[in-house]
């Protein structure tokens, strides 16, 4: 009991001392001290967040409007395209374990999948996500390929010459969607056509003026016909069918770069 | 009837469609709506018309911004469905209650929707009837028939439903409800008879019938309307608190005003009776309004408007002093936790400030207004994130919207197109159009200079056969740049000159033909006709509108009239509109860059070049980010 009383007295003394000490300090200094303390904690929290981001598990789904990105997104997440989709106005984001891996046991690293709208007005959105991306899936409509070939190639060219993609060597999967349809083009055909288009773009995109820095890098080897193998990053071609849920190649690609 | 009703997320996943309607839509009206209306910052509009594949639909939509949901109703244009707005808002309300981001199928909503639709139809039905009788006593049999058809299907059921709901309210209202119920039933029966007899007879019958109704209904009108108010009240009481109910009918009333503009005088009365239900202060408003109409003196007008606004803001004014009392601490607290939901009143002030700022940057007033409406539509009901203020949220939304507008939808890589044309062994033809004195010839020369630098062979065509000295001016440019020029002197048809120029270019292997045209005011019919002929005859690859960056409100008029005339006067099937914009005199305007925004918004065409100086190299691409920054500075 005495021990406790002693302690009590000691504590009282300390608190007295503390209060006295506090009263000695001018209030401005006190506020500054509190401010500094708060600032450091906030900075600490922020740095933790930033630190986490460096270990990216983000996969971007990009491509023209109507190529089937949103369907693919839901196929990968839920294994179903639900009741169909319409043109997206905002990105779809989700961190999840791929649907096909749900049955597997053990801890699997979830994937942060972002479906960026393909409408040309929403293109700038892609740039927001590119710094975090670990891999990009570029979806192409294999059914209605030829009318969209040029636009798709331009979009892909912009991605391939983006500073983030080039510097970090973000791998790109050229995913030919809608291959369940009979009249869909083969992936080889699509690859060749897009290489041809990019070759033409390479010639014409020699900076119009310094006012707009759209493309930071040039791709391909000077004096040679462009091929995807010339890119700084890896470009793979694959087939998929969002409607039927045949997305094995896409899943393999994702899991190759985001290890489970 | 309603063709389809969809609920989907802003991300693009369809959550629910009305299965029982079930007819497949022709074409893809929803995608078209999103692409050409909602993404073009036109979501402040009332409705969207879709014409393609032999279908003529009207689409109406509403957003639930907090949950990120979009509700779209599609119906045939020829049917003026009056209940769609009402239906959308009730569907929105009840769907947002069951919505869960994790859930993907909402089969149980079918039943709720059926109910809501019936109620909405009943409300519209009743309103139409009162309107028909009071507003237009004599109407065609066809219309009446339509009403009776729609009514008879579910008329009795609906009414009895309504009746039972009214029983929840006080006895008086229920009584009135029954009265209207009986009356409308009788009406239908008579209509049915009249349909059985031949047409002429039917017409007589209906007019008699309507006349009878007129007397009956005028007596009943105020009561009937009150009865309807009762239904609404009962509806919403079930869902939300009484505070919300007070606000809800007011909202609906304003929406309805928009729809029935042909019943203008009656509308006010409807509103008047409605608000009698809500609070007794209504008489006051009426007097105030009368005051405003009669007196011309400033003092009284100011006074009356003051009192009116006080009355209008009744629910708001209760909260305001409270908010003031809460003071600094609560506002800080609110900014940390994030405000519940943004309301229209919260957004009014920052949007007004933003609109004024845009207008000082020379954005056309109309455009600034539309943009603000669209931003308002995208923010209303949204949750404010923590550590943000409303003004910064609004500014962020506006920035997004501006970037979206100014980002070109078509490729602006002309060199790529030139190479494509080269492969097809034909020259790439660019026509420069615009009003007088904006710098068409000067910038044509700049474009020629730029093309020459990229090793493209250029030919100029002097098709300004109108203004004296124009051909000589172009010839001077051609000489300095050492490019061939095609000219046929004055007093020639410019369309023919252009055609010959293109033939000449094909012969001598020029890659690009730059066609200079006479400057013309957008209202000058004969000159516009000539321009339309030139474009239709030659089918150029690019119609470039040259516009000054100096213009303000005029920009809208110029571009819309040019586009209008080009589409009106075109003879062939495929109309050519303006494909791109060349903005000149950009170096003279400092930070008043609004013309770029106005022009792009009104035409949907991208700014392909910006002229920014006197010498040949002074041609730039538009830097979207810099423009947006300047606009919001």
**CATH homologous superfamily heading of the largest domain in chain A:** P-loop containing nucleotide triphosphate hydrolases
Largest β-sheet summary of chain B: 8 strands, mixed
User: If interface size is counted as residues with C-beta under 8 Å from the partner's C-beta, which chains form the largest one?
Assistant: A-B, 38 and 45 residues
Q: What's the total count of β strands of chain B?
A: 13
- Low-pLDDT regions of chain B: 136-261, 263-325
Measured as a percent range, the helix fraction of chain A is 40-55%
Helix content of chain B: 55-70%
Distance between the termini of chain B: 49 Å
Spatial shape of chain B: globular
List the total number of helices of chain A.
8
- What is the multimeric organization of the chains shown? heterodimer
The number of distinct β-strands of chain A equals 6
Q: Any idea what the CATH architecture of the domain at 414-632 in chain B is?
A: 3-Layer(aba) Sandwich
Task: Quote the beta fraction of chain B.
Answer: 5-15%
Rg value of chain B:
30 Å
Low-confidence stretches of chain A: 207-213
Tally the helices of chain B. 22
Strand order of the largest sheet of chain A: 2-3-1-4-5-6
The count of domains of chain A is 2
CATH class of the domain at 414-632 in chain B: Alpha Beta
CATH fold call of the largest domain in chain A: Rossmann fold
Question: What would your notes on this structure say?
Answer:
- The complex is a heterodimer of chains A (260) and B (633).
- Chain A is of the alpha/beta class.
- Chain A folds into two domains: 2-51; 55-257, Rossmann fold.
- Helices cover 45% and strands 14% of the residues of chain A.
- Chain A has helices at residues 2-24, 27-54, 69-78, 124-129, 145-160, 163-168, 187-204, 248-257; strands at 58-63, 92-96, 111-115, 133-141, 172-177, 235-239.
- In chain A, strands 2-3-1-4-5-6 form a six-stranded mixed β-sheet, sandwiched between helices.
- The longest helix of chain A has 28 residues, at 27-54.
- The termini of chain A are far apart.
- Chain B is α/β, with parallel strands linked by helices.
- Among the domains of chain B are: 314-406, Up-down Bundle (Four Helix Bundle (Hemerythrin (Met), subunit A)), CATH 1.20.120; 414-632, 3-Layer(aba) Sandwich (Rossmann fold), CATH 3.40.50.300.
- Chain B has helices at 29-38, 84-98, 109-135, 141-168, 171-196, 199-239, 242-259, 264-278, 282-294, 298-312, 314-337, 344-360, 365-379, 390-406, 414-423, 440-453, 470-481, 494-508, 525-538, 554-569, 594-603, 624-632; strands at residues 2-9, 14-17, 48-52, 55-64, 69-76, 428-433, 458-463, 485-486, 512-517, 542-548, 580-584, 607-611, 619-620.
- In chain B, the strands form two sheets. Chain B has an eight-stranded mixed β-sheet with strand order 8-7-9-6-10-11-12-13, with helices on both faces.
- The two termini of chain B are 49 Å apart.
- The A-B interface holds A 65-66, 70, 74, 78, 80, 82-92, 115, 117, 119-124, 150-151, 154, 200-201, 203-206, 208-209, 211-212 and B 6, 8-17, 30-31, 34-35, 38-40, 68, 70, 104-105, 403-405, 407-411, 413, 415-416, 418-420, 450, 454, 610, 619-624.
